[in-house]
Amino acid sequence: MAKFILDNIEYDVPDGKCLAETCEKAGVPFSCNSGVCGTCQINIVEGHDNLGELNQEEKDLAMDRNHRLGCQCIISGGVVKASF
Ligand code: FES
After folding, report:
1. pLDDT tens, position by position, 63-73
2. How far apart are CA 32 and CA 1, in angstroms?
């Protein structure tokens, strides 16, 4: 089980799961849910290496290891701290 800490609130997320559901529950604004609009951007503060590689949708929106799409990125394990 991974820990995802978003704006200082801690969530348990199964290893290998996309963060979409947790981000949405936490109040991150969502629109397209498919990596096109960029609305769900989150800022990664710690634990960058515990997220999967940037996918094509994130690359297309010029995301980087500090800026990820909540609807696309996958937590692999460990702890990730982020804000939005
Ligand atoms: S909700 Fe549109 S990119 Fe994530």
Report:
1. 999 999 999 99
2. 27
